[in-house]
Amino acid sequence: MAKLEKPVLVELLATAVDGDHCVSLAAISLNFELVGSASIVFADSDTPTLGNLFVLEGRRREGIASGLTNAALSWANSMEKSLYLHVQPTNTAARALYQELGFEYTGELTDSGSYWMVKSAFECRLANPWTPPLLGEEARNA
């Protein structure tokens, strides 16, 4: 099967999971292959959280994760909500992507040690965004 350049469709699918509101996102290629997905769940009524973002290994670095994240941001803005996510400290590619898209570190950690990030609704900025420490390759290149 020939590899296509980019997916043509990022679809938002509203669903209910165990009674909780959830929005699913799917990136679908021209030949109808699911090449990426993500979900937005609510930690509470005011905290939509982007999670489970996945792109097929052979389709990474094509802008699919950016497309899924931007679709989630558009949805959050339409709901007048800030969008949260968490990312592992060692996932430098994801951290760079999220920062490029305007997410800021909140300074809080998940129970598993991931960094919480937020992109405020309507392009607002955090008053005092937190800067995480540099790790491994980042520290050597600084």
From TrEMBL:
InterPro entries according to UniProt: Acyl_CoA_acyltransferase, GNAT_dom
Gene3D superfamilies the record matches: 3.40.630.30
Residue stretches making up the N-acetyltransferase domain: 1-122
Pfam families: Acetyltransf_1 (PF00583)
Name of the protein this chain belongs to: N-acetyltransferase domain-containing protein
Taxonomic source organism: Hymenobacter algoricola
